[in-house]
Amino acid sequence: MKQGPTADKEGVLPSETEGDHGESAVTAYRRDRLLASLTLIAGAGLTLAVPFALRAGAEFFLPVTAALVIAIALVPILEWLERRRVPSGLSALLCIILFITAANVAVASIVLPATDWFRLLPERIPRIRETLGPILEVYADLERFIDGIVHEFGASSESPRTVAVETPNSMVDIIASSAPHAAIQIFFAMLVIFFFLAGWTRMRRATITTRTSFDGAMTTARVIQQVVDATSTYLGTITMVNVAMGLVVALFLYAIDMPTPLMWGGIVAVLNYIPYLGPIASVLLLALGGLMAFPDPWYAMLPALSFAALHLVEANVITPALVGRRLTINPLLILVALSFWAWVWGTTGALLAVPLLIIMKTILDAAGRPDIAGFLFEDGTLTGHHHEETGEEPDTGTDKGADKPGGPP
Length: 409
Prior knowledge:
Layout: H1 14-56, H2 58-83, H3 88-131, H4 133-136, H5 140-156, H6 160-164, H7 171-198, H8 200-209, H9 214-255, H10 261-271, H11 277-293, H12 297-300, H13 302-323, H14 331-367, H15 372-377, H16 386-390
Helix pairs in contact: 1-2, 1-14, 2-3, 2-7, 2-9, 2-14, 3-7, 3-10, 3-11, 8-9, 9-10, 9-13, 9-14, 10-11, 11-13
């Protein structure tokens, strides 16, 4: 005699249990996908809004960001002083003094001689034209085009419209007009650096000890240390390389009797912080300086050519050997970061592009990156690890095993 389906201890039939389980899995899957969609939309909106906010609030965000990057780079010096029982406040003050001294030396060696070069540039234009004469003779059409432009500029300079335009007469006027605003921003940045360094040890300890689990505390400590190590290692290594290259360039220019060789070495060292674009600017400036200093066109190109050869050795041999693979970044990311931060904050943003890229890359590597491709084409979530961890696929309500040989009927 056949018996009907028996109920389990709770009085629920197996078919009913399987149906409830399938519906709950589908509901959970749809809920996860909805939450991931909302997160993706909010993240995309925030990503689009942040650049415009940073650009509009550059007077606040630029000095704060620059100060934080500099402070992170100075953390190893601060910790070295604190390990020798120097108080945190005094250690932070010594770091500030060290940074200000280095900055003043750079400004004194670059800005003051550069002012004289800018003042002499209008007087040296005839010499530059005379020096380039043998080269421009090969391009007669180009020379006529340049002469026509120069003649047109000379004629337009007599018009009342150009006479009415008032511009600063020297670099001193430009500095004097912008000094109060720049001084306030620099003072604010120095305060941010000081208070960040003075409270660094206390902030790091509080951040780690406030975690609710030991694993969370260890992860937080590891991420903080990785950010400090990566940023300080990159900036410290690049600074030593740039200073050494600037000194070599200055010695070479001194040997060929180039005026103010220390200024050119400082310009090369500063511009070399900007990947790709900085060396190009250095070559152009050295070519212009050589044309202003030497009458022979081929001898005038010697400073630019020597720096180009030195940069090729530095970029392909020295820097990769010192920095290593740990801080190797995709060149495409560097170019995108350079264009982005240069658009947001100009030249200062270009100088901060690579350190900011290193900081964000280190944090994302530790925190995890959203799997946008998995959300769009595969998993339906932003984690990309759900099915790998559980070993299950999302249940969409269809019985995939019915079409497979040997599967359930």
